[in-house]
Amino acid sequence: MPKLLVTGAAGHLGRAVIHHLLETEQVAPADLIAGSRDLSKLSDLAAKGVETRRVDFNDAEGLASAFAGVERVLLISTDDLATPGGRLKQHQAAVSAATSAGVRHLVYTSMPNPDRSLVSFAPDHLGTEKAIQQSGLAYTILRNAWYHDNYLMSMPHNLQVGKWFTAMGDGRITNISRDDCARAAAAALARPAAENRIFTLTGSRSLNAHEIASLVTEATGKPLEVVPVSDEQLAQGLAGAGLPDFVVKMLVSADANVRAGYFDLVTNDFNALTGREPQSLRDFLAAHRDALVAGH
After folding, report:
1. DSSP 85
2. Residue ranges per domain, the chain?
3. pTM for the full model?
4. E strand map for the chain
5. What is the Cα–Cα distance from 171 to 135, expressed in whole angstroms?
6. Class for domain 4-145+178-201+266-278, per CATH?
7. For 199-211, how does the pLDDT look when each residue is reduced to its tens digit (9 = 90+)?
């Protein structure tokens, strides 16, 4: 088996990918490398026989060492959303290092419609995709839909007040769980296609805000009223709650993207990669009921 490297291995997505590589794809620990800025967070993986390497996207020289002897790399997009252009610069450095190190196949976690998306960080993904396509590396790009998991950050508060203030309008969105995206990434890394591919990973249904709220109520037994607001009103409310400016812009732009229809797409790419059906939002919410009603 060739050497496989997963960057961001200490994060939620990276850890889930490694789990699926070991359990689902039956990759031997000795063939797997987990990368992170903080190796202390990977001690449990090292104990299982997984090699660990320091991967710091701000350290070009270190990236070259991290990618040495690796055949396939999963490049998980970094979390540097607060620095304008910072994440794209990190990704470009990683692509350059992978090319110089002789990596043969690069898998990257992107987002749907990065060329049209209104989401604040879409240019990072579009620029990274272009860098990969121009590098000469064989690649698989995974355009992950908005996670089911994102609702766990906002819905507990919404349920406490019984209202969901949203600027989605009549737009529709298809969600998918982070774990399903990890499962697909593991498959793409362990069994890459012979040709360059772009997969858009979505759930099987596209829903509007009222349908999502109904599923939240069904899962929790708590009423949830959808309250339509403008982008400006949403931004004021989020800023008033103390969220950082870059987070406010991200959330408002995400609602605008739903309203514009750029999150309204359903594909069978997840099924094609994994041979499974994606977890529905209904099943996800039911499985995470306790997190949704936290504080009640």
Report:
1. T
2. 4-145+178-201+266-278
3. 0.96
4. 4-6, 32-36, 51-54, 72-75, 105-110, 138-144, 163-166, 197-201, 225-228
5. 36
6. alpha beta
7. 999 999 999 999 9
